[in-house]
Specification:
Structural class: alpha/beta
Number of strands: 18
Distance between the termini: 66 Å
Radius of gyration: 32 Å
Largest sheet: 6 strands, mixed
Strand order of the largest sheet: 10-11-9-12-13-14
Length: about 425
Protein backbone atom coordinates (compact mmCIF):
# COMPACT_ATOMS: atom_id res chain seq x y z
CA UNK A 1 0.00 0.00 0.00
CA UNK A 2 1.26 3.48 -0.88
CA UNK A 3 1.76 5.52 2.29
CA UNK A 4 3.56 8.84 2.09
CA UNK A 5 1.47 10.91 4.50
CA UNK A 6 0.58 10.43 8.13
CA UNK A 7 -0.88 12.39 11.01
CA UNK A 8 0.45 11.69 14.50
CA UNK A 9 0.41 13.19 18.00
CA UNK A 10 3.65 13.55 19.96
CA UNK A 11 4.05 14.48 23.62
CA UNK A 12 7.14 15.30 25.62
CA UNK A 13 7.61 13.93 29.12
CA UNK A 14 6.49 15.93 32.15
CA UNK A 15 9.21 17.04 34.53
CA UNK A 16 9.17 15.26 37.87
CA UNK A 17 7.90 17.26 40.86
CA UNK A 18 10.36 18.47 43.44
CA UNK A 19 10.19 16.61 46.75
CA UNK A 20 9.35 17.94 50.21
CA UNK A 21 11.20 16.21 53.07
CA UNK A 22 13.38 16.94 56.09
CA UNK A 23 16.39 15.24 57.54
CA UNK A 24 15.37 12.79 60.25
CA UNK A 25 18.57 11.29 61.50
CA UNK A 26 19.82 10.25 64.88
CA UNK A 27 21.79 12.98 66.59
CA UNK A 28 20.42 15.56 64.12
CA UNK A 29 17.54 17.01 66.14
CA UNK A 30 16.75 19.90 63.76
CA UNK A 31 17.51 18.56 60.31
CA UNK A 32 16.89 20.95 57.47
CA UNK A 33 15.03 20.40 54.21
CA UNK A 34 16.48 17.66 52.01
CA UNK A 35 13.87 17.22 49.29
CA UNK A 36 15.52 16.43 45.94
CA UNK A 37 14.77 17.79 42.48
CA UNK A 38 12.49 16.08 40.01
CA UNK A 39 14.02 14.48 36.94
CA UNK A 40 13.63 16.12 33.54
CA UNK A 41 10.99 14.68 31.25
CA UNK A 42 12.02 12.87 28.06
CA UNK A 43 12.19 14.76 24.78
CA UNK A 44 10.69 13.84 21.39
CA UNK A 45 13.37 13.42 18.73
CA UNK A 46 13.04 12.56 15.03
CA UNK A 47 15.87 10.61 13.39
CA UNK A 48 16.50 9.62 9.78
CA UNK A 49 16.60 5.85 9.23
CA UNK A 50 18.21 4.90 5.90
CA UNK A 51 16.38 1.56 5.99
CA UNK A 52 12.93 3.17 5.72
CA UNK A 53 11.33 4.31 2.47
CA UNK A 54 7.65 4.80 3.39
CA UNK A 55 5.57 6.15 6.27
CA UNK A 56 3.61 2.89 6.50
CA UNK A 57 4.59 2.26 10.13
CA UNK A 58 2.63 5.30 11.22
CA UNK A 59 -0.63 3.61 10.18
CA UNK A 60 -0.40 1.43 13.27
CA UNK A 61 0.87 3.86 15.92
CA UNK A 62 -0.58 7.36 16.03
CA UNK A 63 0.49 8.59 19.48
CA UNK A 64 4.08 8.91 20.71
CA UNK A 65 4.79 9.78 24.33
CA UNK A 66 8.18 10.42 25.89
CA UNK A 67 8.69 9.17 29.43
CA UNK A 68 7.92 11.43 32.39
CA UNK A 69 10.66 12.42 34.80
CA UNK A 70 10.55 10.82 38.23
CA UNK A 71 9.73 12.97 41.29
CA UNK A 72 12.59 13.99 43.54
CA UNK A 73 13.36 11.94 46.61
CA UNK A 74 14.48 12.56 50.14
CA UNK A 75 18.15 12.95 51.09
CA UNK A 76 18.60 15.39 48.18
CA UNK A 77 18.23 12.62 45.60
CA UNK A 78 17.22 13.74 42.10
CA UNK A 79 14.53 11.80 40.27
CA UNK A 80 15.45 9.77 37.21
CA UNK A 81 15.27 11.54 33.84
CA UNK A 82 12.51 10.36 31.52
CA UNK A 83 13.57 8.38 28.46
CA UNK A 84 13.48 10.24 25.15
CA UNK A 85 11.02 9.16 22.47
CA UNK A 86 13.01 8.49 19.28
CA UNK A 87 10.84 8.48 16.13
CA UNK A 88 12.52 7.09 13.02
CA UNK A 89 11.49 8.41 9.61
CA UNK A 90 12.73 7.99 6.01
CA UNK A 91 15.09 10.57 4.58
CA UNK A 92 13.06 13.26 2.85
CA UNK A 93 10.27 13.37 5.45
CA UNK A 94 8.81 16.82 6.04
CA UNK A 95 7.37 17.45 9.51
CA UNK A 96 4.57 20.01 9.63
CA UNK A 97 2.39 21.44 12.38
CA UNK A 98 -0.94 19.83 11.56
CA UNK A 99 -3.31 22.77 12.12
CA UNK A 100 -1.37 25.38 10.16
CA UNK A 101 0.51 23.12 7.72
CA UNK A 102 3.69 25.10 8.46
CA UNK A 103 7.03 23.29 8.13
CA UNK A 104 8.76 22.45 11.41
CA UNK A 105 11.64 20.40 9.97
CA UNK A 106 12.72 18.83 6.70
CA UNK A 107 14.64 15.63 7.36
CA UNK A 108 16.82 16.06 4.29
CA UNK A 109 20.32 17.20 3.40
CA UNK A 110 22.57 17.40 6.46
CA UNK A 111 19.72 17.13 8.94
CA UNK A 112 19.71 13.60 10.35
CA UNK A 113 18.17 14.36 13.74
CA UNK A 114 15.77 16.97 15.11
CA UNK A 115 14.59 17.59 18.67
CA UNK A 116 11.00 18.70 18.21
CA UNK A 117 9.75 18.85 21.81
CA UNK A 118 12.03 19.25 24.79
CA UNK A 119 11.00 17.43 27.93
CA UNK A 120 9.70 19.42 30.89
CA UNK A 121 12.30 20.53 33.40
CA UNK A 122 12.17 18.82 36.78
CA UNK A 123 10.97 20.93 39.70
CA UNK A 124 13.23 22.04 42.53
CA UNK A 125 12.98 20.21 45.84
CA UNK A 126 12.34 22.09 49.05
CA UNK A 127 16.07 22.08 49.85
CA UNK A 128 16.31 25.10 47.51
CA UNK A 129 13.81 27.23 49.42
CA UNK A 130 15.30 27.41 52.90
CA UNK A 131 15.97 31.01 53.97
CA UNK A 132 16.88 32.76 57.19
CA UNK A 133 13.21 33.46 57.81
CA UNK A 134 11.85 30.13 56.51
CA UNK A 135 14.11 27.31 57.60
CA UNK A 136 11.54 24.56 57.11
CA UNK A 137 9.89 25.22 53.73
CA UNK A 138 6.99 22.87 53.01
CA UNK A 139 6.90 23.80 49.37
CA UNK A 140 8.61 22.24 46.33
CA UNK A 141 8.34 23.28 42.71
CA UNK A 142 6.19 21.18 40.39
CA UNK A 143 7.85 19.86 37.25
CA UNK A 144 7.18 21.61 33.98
CA UNK A 145 4.22 20.14 32.12
CA UNK A 146 4.26 17.80 29.18
CA UNK A 147 3.70 19.47 25.82
CA UNK A 148 1.79 18.00 22.91
CA UNK A 149 1.86 18.62 19.17
CA UNK A 150 -0.24 17.20 16.36
CA UNK A 151 2.01 16.67 13.37
CA UNK A 152 1.52 16.00 9.69
CA UNK A 153 4.30 13.92 8.13
CA UNK A 154 4.87 13.95 4.38
CA UNK A 155 7.50 12.00 2.48
CA UNK A 156 9.03 13.59 -0.61
CA UNK A 157 11.67 11.28 -2.07
CA UNK A 158 15.13 12.63 -2.77
CA UNK A 159 16.42 11.86 -6.24
CA UNK A 160 18.25 13.73 -8.99
CA UNK A 161 15.96 12.48 -11.73
CA UNK A 162 12.29 11.53 -11.72
CA UNK A 163 10.67 9.21 -14.25
CA UNK A 164 7.18 10.43 -15.15
CA UNK A 165 4.55 9.22 -17.56
CA UNK A 166 1.32 7.26 -17.77
CA UNK A 167 1.09 3.81 -16.18
CA UNK A 168 2.58 0.90 -18.11
CA UNK A 169 4.79 2.96 -20.43
CA UNK A 170 7.99 1.23 -19.27
CA UNK A 171 9.33 3.42 -16.48
CA UNK A 172 10.02 0.48 -14.16
CA UNK A 173 11.75 -1.42 -16.97
CA UNK A 174 13.93 1.59 -17.76
CA UNK A 175 14.89 1.94 -14.09
CA UNK A 176 15.79 -1.74 -13.79
CA UNK A 177 17.90 -1.63 -16.98
CA UNK A 178 19.69 1.56 -15.90
CA UNK A 179 20.38 1.07 -12.21
CA UNK A 180 20.68 -1.27 -9.27
CA UNK A 181 16.96 -1.03 -8.50
CA UNK A 182 14.75 -4.09 -8.86
CA UNK A 183 11.19 -2.83 -9.22
CA UNK A 184 8.25 -5.18 -9.65
CA UNK A 185 7.33 -5.22 -13.35
CA UNK A 186 4.15 -6.54 -14.92
CA UNK A 187 1.82 -5.68 -17.78
CA UNK A 188 -0.92 -3.98 -15.80
CA UNK A 189 -1.56 -0.48 -14.50
CA UNK A 190 -0.26 0.82 -11.20
CA UNK A 191 2.28 -1.96 -10.70
CA UNK A 192 4.39 0.71 -8.98
CA UNK A 193 2.61 2.14 -5.94
CA UNK A 194 5.71 3.29 -4.06
CA UNK A 195 8.43 5.50 -5.52
CA UNK A 196 11.48 3.31 -6.19
CA UNK A 197 14.99 4.74 -6.19
CA UNK A 198 17.95 3.38 -8.12
CA UNK A 199 21.57 4.50 -8.43
CA UNK A 200 22.76 4.93 -12.03
CA UNK A 201 26.52 4.37 -12.40
CA UNK A 202 28.20 5.52 -15.63
CA UNK A 203 31.74 5.06 -16.90
CA UNK A 204 33.64 8.38 -17.15
CA UNK A 205 30.54 10.39 -16.23
CA UNK A 206 28.68 11.55 -13.17
CA UNK A 207 26.28 8.99 -11.71
CA UNK A 208 22.91 9.98 -10.27
CA UNK A 209 19.89 8.77 -8.34
CA UNK A 210 16.77 8.09 -10.38
CA UNK A 211 13.26 7.57 -9.02
CA UNK A 212 10.44 5.69 -10.67
CA UNK A 213 7.45 7.85 -9.72
CA UNK A 214 4.15 5.91 -9.88
CA UNK A 215 2.23 6.44 -13.11
CA UNK A 216 0.04 9.51 -13.37
CA UNK A 217 -3.51 9.70 -14.66
CA UNK A 218 -5.46 12.61 -16.04
CA UNK A 219 -6.82 14.76 -13.21
CA UNK A 220 -3.87 13.88 -10.96
CA UNK A 221 -3.15 17.53 -10.12
CA UNK A 222 -6.74 17.83 -8.86
CA UNK A 223 -6.25 14.82 -6.62
CA UNK A 224 -7.63 12.13 -8.92
CA UNK A 225 -6.37 8.67 -8.07
CA UNK A 226 -3.18 9.07 -6.04
CA UNK A 227 -2.18 12.12 -8.05
CA UNK A 228 -1.24 14.54 -5.28
CA UNK A 229 0.81 11.90 -3.50
CA UNK A 230 2.70 10.99 -6.66
CA UNK A 231 3.30 14.54 -7.86
CA UNK A 232 4.67 15.60 -4.47
CA UNK A 233 7.61 13.24 -4.92
CA UNK A 234 8.77 15.06 -8.05
CA UNK A 235 9.27 18.36 -6.19
CA UNK A 236 12.83 17.59 -5.08
CA UNK A 237 14.06 16.19 -8.40
CA UNK A 238 16.31 18.36 -10.55
CA UNK A 239 15.27 16.93 -13.90
CA UNK A 240 12.49 14.76 -15.36
CA UNK A 241 12.68 11.92 -17.86
CA UNK A 242 9.26 11.88 -19.46
CA UNK A 243 8.62 8.32 -20.68
CA UNK A 244 6.02 7.82 -23.37
CA UNK A 245 4.82 4.68 -25.19
CA UNK A 246 5.90 5.71 -28.70
CA UNK A 247 4.34 2.58 -30.21
CA UNK A 248 0.91 3.35 -28.77
CA UNK A 249 0.76 -0.33 -27.81
CA UNK A 250 -2.37 0.18 -25.71
CA UNK A 251 -4.19 2.17 -28.38
CA UNK A 252 -3.14 5.54 -26.95
CA UNK A 253 -1.72 8.43 -28.98
CA UNK A 254 1.83 9.28 -27.71
CA UNK A 255 1.58 12.99 -28.52
CA UNK A 256 -1.72 13.29 -26.65
CA UNK A 257 -0.11 11.43 -23.72
CA UNK A 258 2.74 13.97 -23.63
CA UNK A 259 0.25 16.84 -23.62
CA UNK A 260 -1.83 15.25 -20.86
CA UNK A 261 1.12 14.57 -18.53
CA UNK A 262 2.58 18.05 -19.02
CA UNK A 263 -0.84 19.51 -18.27
CA UNK A 264 -0.90 17.66 -14.93
CA UNK A 265 2.64 18.77 -14.08
CA UNK A 266 1.82 22.41 -14.83
CA UNK A 267 -1.45 22.29 -12.88
CA UNK A 268 0.22 21.16 -9.65
CA UNK A 269 0.75 23.98 -7.16
CA UNK A 270 4.57 23.83 -7.11
CA UNK A 271 7.16 24.57 -9.80
CA UNK A 272 7.09 21.01 -11.17
CA UNK A 273 5.87 22.16 -14.58
CA UNK A 274 9.00 24.29 -15.03
CA UNK A 275 11.52 21.51 -14.45
CA UNK A 276 13.88 20.53 -17.24
CA UNK A 277 12.60 17.54 -19.24
CA UNK A 278 14.07 14.92 -21.54
CA UNK A 279 11.66 12.73 -23.46
CA UNK A 280 12.26 8.98 -23.69
CA UNK A 281 10.23 7.63 -26.63
CA UNK A 282 10.01 4.05 -25.37
CA UNK A 283 8.99 0.79 -27.08
CA UNK A 284 10.55 1.88 -30.38
CA UNK A 285 11.13 -1.79 -31.21
CA UNK A 286 7.33 -2.19 -31.40
CA UNK A 287 6.63 0.76 -33.73
CA UNK A 288 5.28 -0.41 -37.13
CA UNK A 289 7.49 0.50 -40.11
CA UNK A 290 4.79 2.64 -41.72
CA UNK A 291 4.12 4.65 -38.54
CA UNK A 292 4.96 8.35 -38.30
CA UNK A 293 4.76 8.31 -34.48
CA UNK A 294 8.41 9.22 -33.90
CA UNK A 295 8.26 12.12 -36.39
CA UNK A 296 5.14 13.48 -34.71
CA UNK A 297 6.75 13.18 -31.26
CA UNK A 298 9.91 14.97 -32.43
CA UNK A 299 7.94 17.76 -34.12
CA UNK A 300 5.80 18.38 -31.05
CA UNK A 301 8.72 18.26 -28.59
CA UNK A 302 10.75 20.61 -30.79
CA UNK A 303 8.08 23.26 -30.17
CA UNK A 304 8.59 22.77 -26.40
CA UNK A 305 12.39 22.70 -26.57
CA UNK A 306 12.47 19.10 -25.29
CA UNK A 307 15.06 16.67 -26.64
CA UNK A 308 13.78 13.25 -27.74
CA UNK A 309 15.63 9.95 -27.30
CA UNK A 310 14.10 6.92 -29.02
CA UNK A 311 14.73 3.91 -26.76
CA UNK A 312 13.64 0.39 -26.00
CA UNK A 313 13.88 -0.20 -22.26
CA UNK A 314 13.22 -3.89 -22.83
CA UNK A 315 16.20 -4.43 -25.19
CA UNK A 316 18.43 -1.61 -23.95
CA UNK A 317 18.50 0.15 -27.32
CA UNK A 318 19.23 3.89 -26.94
CA UNK A 319 19.23 3.74 -23.12
CA UNK A 320 22.96 4.49 -22.70
CA UNK A 321 22.77 7.61 -24.89
CA UNK A 322 19.80 8.84 -22.83
CA UNK A 323 21.60 8.32 -19.50
CA UNK A 324 24.82 10.04 -20.59
CA UNK A 325 22.82 13.02 -21.85
CA UNK A 326 20.96 13.25 -18.53
CA UNK A 327 24.28 13.10 -16.66
CA UNK A 328 25.64 16.00 -18.71
CA UNK A 329 22.53 18.08 -17.98
CA UNK A 330 22.77 17.39 -14.25
CA UNK A 331 26.38 18.60 -14.26
CA UNK A 332 25.07 22.02 -15.34
CA UNK A 333 22.41 22.21 -12.61
CA UNK A 334 22.87 23.14 -8.91
CA UNK A 335 23.89 20.09 -6.88
CA UNK A 336 22.10 21.06 -3.66
CA UNK A 337 19.01 19.12 -2.62
CA UNK A 338 15.86 21.21 -2.28
CA UNK A 339 15.25 21.62 1.46
CA UNK A 340 12.10 23.22 2.84
CA UNK A 341 12.77 26.05 5.30
CA UNK A 342 11.39 26.05 8.85
CA UNK A 343 8.17 28.05 9.26
CA UNK A 344 7.12 26.94 12.75
CA UNK A 345 9.36 26.57 15.81
CA UNK A 346 7.64 24.54 18.57
CA UNK A 347 10.00 25.81 21.28
CA UNK A 348 9.11 29.38 20.38
CA UNK A 349 5.39 28.80 19.88
CA UNK A 350 4.73 26.60 22.91
CA UNK A 351 6.90 28.16 25.57
CA UNK A 352 5.22 29.89 28.47
CA UNK A 353 5.61 33.62 27.96
CA UNK A 354 5.98 35.66 31.16
CA UNK A 355 4.87 38.74 29.26
CA UNK A 356 1.50 37.29 28.25
CA UNK A 357 -1.32 39.51 29.46
CA UNK A 358 -3.94 38.56 31.99
CA UNK A 359 -7.01 40.38 33.23
CA UNK A 360 -8.50 40.86 36.68
CA UNK A 361 -12.12 42.06 36.52
CA UNK A 362 -15.27 42.11 38.64
CA UNK A 363 -18.36 40.27 37.42
CA UNK A 364 -21.14 42.26 39.06
CA UNK A 365 -23.86 39.86 37.91
CA UNK A 366 -22.22 36.85 39.56
CA UNK A 367 -20.68 38.88 42.35
CA UNK A 368 -17.26 37.35 41.64
CA UNK A 369 -13.77 38.59 40.84
CA UNK A 370 -12.50 36.98 37.62
CA UNK A 371 -8.86 36.26 36.70
CA UNK A 372 -8.26 35.24 33.07
CA UNK A 373 -5.48 34.88 30.50
CA UNK A 374 -3.61 32.10 28.67
CA UNK A 375 -0.76 32.17 31.17
CA UNK A 376 -3.17 31.71 34.08
CA UNK A 377 -4.90 28.84 32.28
CA UNK A 378 -1.62 27.03 31.61
CA UNK A 379 -0.48 27.52 35.21
CA UNK A 380 -3.66 25.85 36.43
CA UNK A 381 -3.08 23.02 33.96
CA UNK A 382 0.08 21.85 35.67
CA UNK A 383 -0.66 22.82 39.28
CA UNK A 384 -2.38 20.35 41.60
CA UNK A 385 -4.48 22.60 43.80
CA UNK A 386 -5.57 19.62 45.92
CA UNK A 387 -2.14 19.36 47.54
CA UNK A 388 -0.60 21.71 50.07
CA UNK A 389 2.49 22.40 47.97
CA UNK A 390 0.39 23.00 44.87
CA UNK A 391 -1.83 25.49 46.66
CA UNK A 392 1.19 27.29 48.16
CA UNK A 393 2.68 27.54 44.66
CA UNK A 394 -0.62 28.92 43.41
CA UNK A 395 -0.68 31.61 46.12
CA UNK A 396 2.94 32.53 45.41
CA UNK A 397 2.16 32.80 41.68
CA UNK A 398 -0.69 35.24 42.39
CA UNK A 399 1.50 37.35 44.66
CA UNK A 400 4.58 37.38 42.39
CA UNK A 401 2.50 38.54 39.43
CA UNK A 402 0.81 41.26 41.52
CA UNK A 403 -2.61 39.69 40.96
CA UNK A 404 -3.35 40.03 44.70
CA UNK A 405 -2.66 43.77 44.43
CA UNK A 406 -5.00 44.05 41.45
CA UNK A 407 -7.76 42.29 43.41
CA UNK A 408 -7.32 44.69 46.30
CA UNK A 409 -7.44 47.68 43.95
CA UNK A 410 -10.81 46.44 42.69
CA UNK A 411 -12.11 46.28 46.25
CA UNK A 412 -11.78 42.56 46.89
CA UNK A 413 -12.02 41.80 50.61
CA UNK A 414 -11.99 38.75 52.83
CA UNK A 415 -14.79 36.30 52.09
CA UNK A 416 -15.28 37.45 48.47
CA UNK A 417 -15.24 34.85 45.69
CA UNK A 418 -12.46 34.70 43.13
CA UNK A 419 -13.00 32.71 39.91
CA UNK A 420 -10.28 31.23 37.66
CA UNK A 421 -11.44 29.03 34.74
CA UNK A 422 -13.98 27.00 36.70
CA UNK A 423 -12.14 27.15 40.02
CA UNK A 424 -13.67 29.28 42.79
CA UNK A 425 -11.93 30.40 45.98
CA UNK A 426 -12.80 32.51 48.98
CA UNK A 427 -10.36 35.39 49.28
CA UNK A 428 -8.46 35.79 52.55
CA UNK A 429 -5.83 38.44 53.14
Amino acid sequence: MFIDKAKIIVSSGKGGDGHVSFRREKYVPAGGPDGGDGGDGGSVIFKVDEGLNTLADFRHIRKYQAEHGEPGKKRRCTGKKGQDMIIKVPQGTIIREAASGKVIADMSGDRREYLILKGGRGGNGNMHYATSTMQAPKYAQPGQPSRTLELFLELKVIADVGLVGFPNVGKSTLLSMSSNAKPRIANYHFTTLNPILGVVDLDDARGFVMADIPGLIEGAADGAGLGHEFLAHIERTKLLIHVVDAAGSEGRDPVEDIKAINKELSAYESEIGNKKQVLAANKCDLIPEDSDALDRIRDYCAELGIEVFPISAATGEGVKALLYHVSSLLAELPSETTVFEQEYDPEEMLQMDDSEPFTVTYDSKAGEYVIEGPRIERMLGYTNLETEKGFIFFQKFLADNKIIDRLKDLGCKEGDTVRLYGHRFDYYD
